[in-house]
Amino acid sequence: IFIDEIDAVGRHRGAGLGGGHDEREQTLNQLLVEMDGFETNEGVILIAATNRPDVLDPALLRPGRFDRQVVVGRPDVRGREAILKVHHTSKVPLADDVELKVIARATPGFTGADLANLVNEASLLAARSNKKTVDMVDFENAKDKVLMGTERRSLVISEKEKKTTAYHEAGHTLVALLLPGTDPIHKVTIIPRGRALGVTQQLPMDEQHTYPRSYLYNQLAILMGGRTAEELFLGQITTGAGNDIERATDLARKMVCEWGMSEKMGPLTYGTKEEQVFLGKDFSMQKNFSDQTAKLIDQEVKALVMGGYNKAKELLNTHRDGLEKLAQTLLERETLTADEIRDIVFGKKDSDKKEDQQEPLSAPSKMANEKDDPPSDKGKRGDEESEGLGGVGPYPDPHPA
């Protein structure tokens, strides 16, 4: 017997606060009785699946009912490649230039369903172009559609808004390019996609489950890069940075209250999750600190966000020419790849790129040396991936699962 989404009937039972037992709890009680093991049911194997194990009733999970719990995580690189082989061999003829390893490396965080959708979208794009096989360009365009949304070229945008978007995205891109230890830039576009007027796409090079404090500091600077560019180069600030500011504030608060990354507040957790079982648990945060501590937390959150803002401002002031070139080129071409971005900012020939990418960040005054801070092969691998597919969205999620 297989029960899918067992949290629909197996959710944690309440303490009668909702006015007594409801139908769901009666269903759970009967299920527990049938699974208690007092009566032998030979030949019956019960398997259930859920993506919310945290809300299940403890009595349901004890040995004797469900003896084993198997965690099925997102596939790694080898898993994604194997999944892609399954989908393409049975359904989709591929062109000779398609490398499944490149696609697998460029889709970290994708589930099996995401990969199936990617192959399907690439097939549709190839069919619209009357192709008999699906090539790498189709996969690239399909990945952009899945991650960033469908292009909205019909959206009417004034020249002023287009210019603002170009400088905003150029600010994100340049800060991400200059800071060490960040995920390499893969692509930047000012073509409206989904609900966004522009997107800066970074490519995580490896599966990452924990993040150092330096990485999160850099993420704050990258998030503030767009607003800073608007302020420095256009003399105004717009509502376009609203989501960036929200994400930066949320990240800074987690650094202080959950991950103990504030030197002033120390390695402590501030606020405990108040579990509301009728509303799915983890519904609210319960305050367990004084008003004075709350003020200190607010000060630390502000200090972290402003630190990212000041870092972005310093970098963009130092490299004004690079940002101007990047923004103007974006206005002309609308979409830039990683190699094109490096050529514009650093003015290097192809033969010089590999050597430069292996140099760590040195002084902020030397633009040519300010690249990602790779261990030996970081820049090289970023280039290899960006030649095929790359990037998982505007910014990688800095919050460990």
Describe this structure in words.
The protein has 3 domains: 2-61, no CATH class; 77-148, Helicase, Ruva Protein, domain 3 (Orthogonal Bundle); 159-387, Peptidase M41 (Methane Monooxygenase Hydroxylase, Chain G, domain 1, Up-down Bundle), CATH 1.20.58.760. The protein has a 3-stranded antiparallel sheet. The relative contact order is 0.12. Helix content is 49%, strand content 6%. It has 401 residues and is mostly helical. It has helices at 7-10, 23-34, 58-61, 77-91, 100-105, 112-128, 136-148, 159-178, 213-234, 242-257, 291-318, 320-333, 338-346, 350-357, 378-387; strands at 2-4, 47-49, 185-189, 199-202, 272-274, 284-286, 335-337. It has 15 helices and 7 strands.
